[in-house]
């Protein structure tokens, strides 16, 4: 590491000397910006922090530089996972923030004062994206990141399996209460098929399932933030919290009919995908990213759908007819070191990535993601995406933007409590007590 730092320092000195010499030449057409960066009159260089899965961004950058040869995009290719965030934080701490970065909303929130306010771009992206996309990605009212991928989750279903079990056409909209869900599961079980798979990992239980608790308290993000503050202060009566208890009631149904009933913490997402794809279970609590494990399965079924997780027996209750949809990553522009020219070039590059056929093709075909845009020119082979897209297009979505305000250890800690409940190591009262203790520890 010290050797690398020494080499980088030497290179930096050389570059400064080189640029100084060039700037003194009478034939030079370069200028030096106030922050010490030297650029040609028209040429602009961007640094772009991202994860280059399947060479997605390599392909996009290549296409963009052919259209805009005066712009050079230097990719800083990091690895996904915790290291990805740590490396970005190190760049911020060293004063070397990239011009453009692909970041999780929680990281953007943490460094919100370091990013360019994209208010001037907001209306454009409201028109380009599906309803509600921009609104659920605001940070204290500011538009700091442009969405490019969207994910939805809930109870995925294998259409063939469900319809064979019930002996006819399945209407997903008919399952909007807990009673309807339990009744359907009982019919499926009677047909000889297991009704559902629960993935027992802490991230699935603690983040995706329990994340619904904070998003469904109200349609207002401000109200949901107040709810979290109430949890920290011990002011919420959890025993009478209708949303929390409704989610536990539904979880009891899922537990009873779980394919992994005898070994609920096995948490092998590949095995889950295989069982679901082959029809060994009719439903699967998961999101459209599960296609990565379903698609490779030989002879997998071809038709799938999704229904919400009902949390009560009131068909009109918020959440019983909507699915949670979010944008896990956003494109944000640095506002600490980047010049106005770099910032404008970054805006143009983002627009190219999300609206051009070249950019959309790379996202859809190489990353197999769903894009939250009205005019997507490329058709995806992800058979889970159309059902989720339908909810998004009709506006039947749950805003789970509240999740970016959750503590960093939430999914692990609350996921662990959920695992105890899943394995019957604690009862409902024990769950409520541990849930409450966790949140009050955040208020101390």
UniProtKB/TrEMBL annotation:
<dbReference type="Pfam" id="PF13416">
    <property type="entry name" value="SBP_bac_8"/>
</dbReference>
<keyword id="KW-0732">Signal</keyword>
<comment type="similarity">
    <text>Belongs to the bacterial solute-binding protein 1 family.</text>
</comment>
<feature type="signal peptide">
    <location>
        <begin position="1"/>
        <end position="25"/>
    </location>
</feature>
<protein>
    <submittedName>
        <fullName>ABC transporter substrate-binding protein</fullName>
    </submittedName>
</protein>
<keyword id="KW-0813">Transport</keyword>
<dbReference type="InterPro" id="IPR006059">
    <property type="entry name" value="SBP"/>
</dbReference>
<dbReference type="InterPro" id="IPR050490">
    <property type="entry name" value="Bact_solute-bd_prot1"/>
</dbReference>
């Amino acid at each position: 590491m010290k050797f690398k730092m020494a080499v980088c320092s030497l290179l930096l000195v050389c570059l400064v000397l080189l640029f100084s010499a060039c700037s003194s030449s009478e034939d030079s057409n370069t200028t030096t910006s106030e922050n010490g960066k030297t650029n040609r009159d028209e040429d602009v260089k961007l640094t772009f922090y991202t994860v280059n899965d399947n060479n997605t961004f390599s392909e996009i950058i290549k296409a963009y530089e052919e259209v805009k040869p005066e712009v050079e995009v230097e990719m800083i290719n990091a690895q996904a996972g915790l290291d990805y965030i740590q490396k970005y934080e190190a760049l911020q701490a060293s004063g070397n923030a990239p011009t453009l970065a692909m970041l999780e909303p929680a990281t953007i929130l943490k460094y919100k004062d370091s990013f360019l306010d994209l208010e001037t771009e907001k209306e454009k992206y409201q028109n380009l994206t599906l309803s509600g996309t921009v609104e659920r990605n605001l940070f204290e009212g500011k538009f700091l990141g442009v969405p490019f991928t969207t994910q939805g989750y809930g109870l995925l279903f294998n259409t063939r399996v469900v319809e064979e079990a019930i002996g006819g056409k399945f209407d997903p909209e008919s399952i909007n209460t807990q009673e309807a869900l339990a009744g359907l599961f009982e019919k499926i079980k009677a047909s000889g098929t297991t009704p559902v798979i629960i993935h027992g990992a802490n991230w699935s239980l603690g983040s995706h399932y329990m994340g619904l608790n904070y998003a469904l308290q109200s349609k207002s993000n401000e109200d949901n933030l107040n709810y979290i503050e109430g949890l920290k202060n011990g002011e919420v009566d959890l025993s009478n919290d209708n949303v929390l208890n409704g989610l536990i009631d539904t979880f009891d149904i899922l537990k009873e009919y779980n394919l992994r009933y005898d070994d609920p913490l096995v948490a092998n997402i590949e095995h889950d995908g295989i069982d679901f794809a082959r029809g060994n279970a009719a439903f699967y609590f998961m999101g459209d990213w599960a296609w990565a494990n379903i698609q490779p399965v030989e002879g997998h079924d071809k038709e799938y759908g999704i229904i919400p997780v009902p949390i009560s027996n009131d068909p009109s209750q918020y959440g019983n007819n909507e699915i949670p949809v979010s944008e896990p990553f956003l494109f944000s522009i640095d506002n600490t070191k980047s010049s106005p020219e770099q910032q404008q070039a970054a805006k143009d590059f983002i627009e190219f990535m999300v609206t051009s056929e070249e950019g959309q093709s790379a996202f859809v075909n190489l990353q197999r993601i769903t894009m939250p845009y009205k005019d997507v020119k490329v058709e995806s082979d992800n058979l889970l995406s159309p059902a989720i897209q339908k909810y998004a297009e009709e506006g039947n979505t749950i805003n789970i933007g509240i999740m970016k305000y959750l503590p960093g250890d939430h999914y692990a800690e609350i996921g662990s409590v959920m695992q105890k409940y899943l394995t019957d190591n604690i009862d409902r009262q024990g769950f409520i007590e541990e849930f409450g203790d966790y949140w009050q520890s955040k208020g101390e």
